[in-house]
Design brief:
- The chain is built from 21 helices and no strands.
- The radius of gyration is 26 Å and the shape is globular.
- It has helices at 15-19, 21-24, 29-32, 46-55, 59-69, 76-93, 99-113, 119-123, 126-139, 143-159, 163-181, 187-204, 208-222, 238-255, 260-270, 283-303, 312-323, 332-350, 353-358, 369-375, 379-400.
- With 408 residues, it is mainly alpha-helical.
Length: 408
């Protein structure tokens, strides 16, 4: 049985958006940094850890300029050893009896793992770190579980496709699934675990059964946002929407490493339901649904060039509406982001030659660089136009202004 992660050949179009999830966890350092936890006697501050971990990154360039500046030579090995000692202390602190101390240690590890590649260091300590993360996920609550899941994600990214990563995934897979499906668990923890399950499975899953279990778990979560049988739209709060969005994106990432037979089954089950998510009140869920629809179309065409979706016309109408959405009750930033993404989603579906031929839309609307440049307005012409508009607007306003009101 080939490894599930050994099929990352679909790497174009909207698949790039799914693969970029592997980089999302690198933003983790921006979330919890700067907060104090525990008593602090044996813990390392984020600022100190960052400076120690990152200082040797620029040591080469510093050494090159040392003779010119007259400074003492920096011993890179000493800096490296100090940074590793601090990381070892953080790993030990994840087993502390104090929940605040464990949380502070996880925050420091999260920051360090997202700041510097530490693969060699982590390979030697993957077993002890996995044991610590397992304990934090089982015994911890809320924020501690969320941090442990985030560190798990970064750990698998650091280790890459190796036996140690497989061991981490096999040990923590069932725990992550339990938290995701536990409705009494913290929504923050469930959301973080959904991200971790998708990324870690993509990197380290070795058995088809593991992949199937992760897909089923994530599917059971986001399907709760599907339109009900009676046609009503489920009502969820913003945190539930975030969870469903994470589960949907993680699921779509794993779909890219499934065999064609599985993809065909997913098309049969989900292509009639996913368009309903485009009507969600949550902009992130609408965008995620659009990206997943585009991804499924791309994967379907890869395995079957004659793939045809019966409701393509209705789907394109929904996508056009979202690509030109100007409803004032939605935030301006959300509208701008939504329109930009759904223009791409719509193009990915309309530019299929078979579909355009079926709907008599003509050839794909693709313009080369020369055509785009020829149709572009010059800066001078744009300036002249703006000046004329400004003058016309000023004249119109002057007519209705009562200058005598300034005296009052």
């Amino acid at each position: 049985m080939p490894k599930a992660r050994g099929r990352p050949g679909h790497n174009k179009g909207f698949l790039r958006r799914e693969l970029l999830q592997l980089k999302v966890s690198a933003k983790a350092a921006q979330l919890e940094g700067g907060r104090n936890g525990g008593k602090g006697e044996t813990l390392v501050s984020d600022d100190d850890l960052t400076s120690e971990v990152l200082s040797h990154c620029s040591s080469t360039s510093e050494n090159a300029s040392v003779p010119e500046e007259g400074n003492e030579t920096i011993d890179e090995q000493v800096v490296q050893e100090k940074a590793e000692e601090k990381l070892k202390q953080c790993i030990d602190n994840t087993m502390d009896k104090s929940a605040k101390a464990r949380q502070k240690a996880l925050e420091s590890l999260k920051l360090a793992f997202s700041s510097k590649i530490l693969s060699a260091f982590l390979v030697e300590r993957s077993v002890s770190l996995t044991d610590s993360l397992e304990r934090c996920l089982k015994k911890g609550k809320g924020e501690e579980q969320a941090l442990a899941a985030a560190v798990t994600t970064l750990l698998c990214i650091q280790l890459g496709s190796c036996q140690e990563a497989e061991d981490v995934f096999k040990t923590l897979k069932s725990i992550l699934i339990n938290i995701i499906t536990d409705k009494s668990a913290s929504l923050t923890a469930r959301h973080s675990c959904a991200d971790a399950l998708g990324t870690c499975c993509y990197i380290a899953a070795d058995e088809a059964e593991d992949l199937a279990a992760c897909l089923a778990c994530l599917e059971s979560v986001f399907s709760a946002s599907y339109i009900k049988g009676d046609g009503t739209v489920p009502s969820h709060n913003s945190q539930i929407h975030v969870l469903h969005c994470s589960a949907l994106l993680s699921w779509s990432l794993l779909v890219t490493i499934c065999p064609p037979s599985k993809i065909q089954r997913f098309l049969e089950i989900h292509m009639s339901k996913l368009p309903g998510l485009l009507c969600s009140d949550n902009v992130s869920l609408r965008i995620a649904a659009g990206e997943v629809i585009a991804l499924l179309f791309e994967l379907a065409r890869k395995s079957d060039q004659d793939y045809f979706y019966e409701d393509t016309g209705q789907l394109c109408e929904k996508l056009k509406a979202l690509a030109t959405d100007c409803n004032k009750y939605r935030a301006k930033v959300d509208r701008r982001k939504q329109r930009s993404i759904f223009r791409d989603v719509l193009h990915s579906i309309e530019h299929n030659e078979l579909l355009r031929d079926i709907f008599e839309l003509g050839p794909p609307l693709v313009m080369d660089a020369a055509t785009i440049k020829a149709n572009k307005i010059s800066r001078f012409e744009k300036h002249q136009y703006n000046s004329a508009v400004f003058k016309a607007r000023t004249k119109a306003r002057n007519k209705v202004r009562d200058k005598r009101a300034d005296i009052l």
